[in-house]
Amino acid sequence: MVHFCQTNSSAGEPKAKLFCAHQSFARKEVERAFGVLQARFAIVKNPSLTMDKEKIGNIMKACIILHNMIVEDERDAETIDNVTEFQQGGADGSGSSRVRPPDRLPSNVHNIMANRADIRDQQKHHQLKADLVEHIWNKFGH
């Protein structure tokens, strides 16, 4: 698993500590959301290696939409016996079990390759991380 920070390497700086705490919380939320989807849909737990990324992305979006429809239907019908199965406290503190679909992915090869190059650019990575640390510090550090 790829992590943006190592919590033990930045023990001295308050900005870095705050960033790592927020990054850790976000990672746990993503892992929880995928756990819910994997428990409900076998295709999410065991995707086919022969599928391309676009097909897997479409399947994920469909599973997210279906999950949200099921959750809303169960809430409307008040048939959930064990609400805690899907509610462990959302990011907003409301306990919402809705999963947000990813933003639209690039559709052509040129955009995909450009994004791939950007992701692997170490200088951009460090600058984006520094900007994110500052943003989180400015928003939550005072």
In short:
The protein has 142 residues and is mainly α.
Describe this structure in words.
- By secondary structure, the protein is mainly α.
- It has one domain.
- It is built from 5 helices and no strands.
- The protein has helices at 14-40, 42-45, 53-77, 109-120, 122-140.
- Helix 1 crosses helix 5 (122-140).
- The longest helix is centred in the first third of the chain and has 27 residues, at 14-40.
- The chain is flat and about 50 Å long.
- Mean pLDDT is 75; it is low at 88-93.
- It holds the Pfam family Plant_tran.
- Residues 81-105 are annotated as: Disordered.
- This is DDE Tnp4 domain-containing protein.
Return the domain count: 1
Compressed to H and E, one letter per element, the order equals HHHHH
> What would the principal axes of the Cα set say about the shape?
flat
Low-confidence stretches: 88-93
Structural class: mainly alpha
Helix content: 55-70%
Beginning-to-end CA distance, first to last residue: 31 Å
Rg from Cα:
18 Å
Arithmetic mean pLDDT: 75
Q: Counting H and I runs of at least 4 residues, what is the number of helices?
A: 5
Largest sheet composition: none
Number of strands: 0
Oligomer state of the chains in this structure:
single chain
Strand content: under 5%
Pfam families: Plant_tran
InterPro entries: Harbinger_derived_prot (IPR006912)
Protein name: DDE Tnp4 domain-containing protein
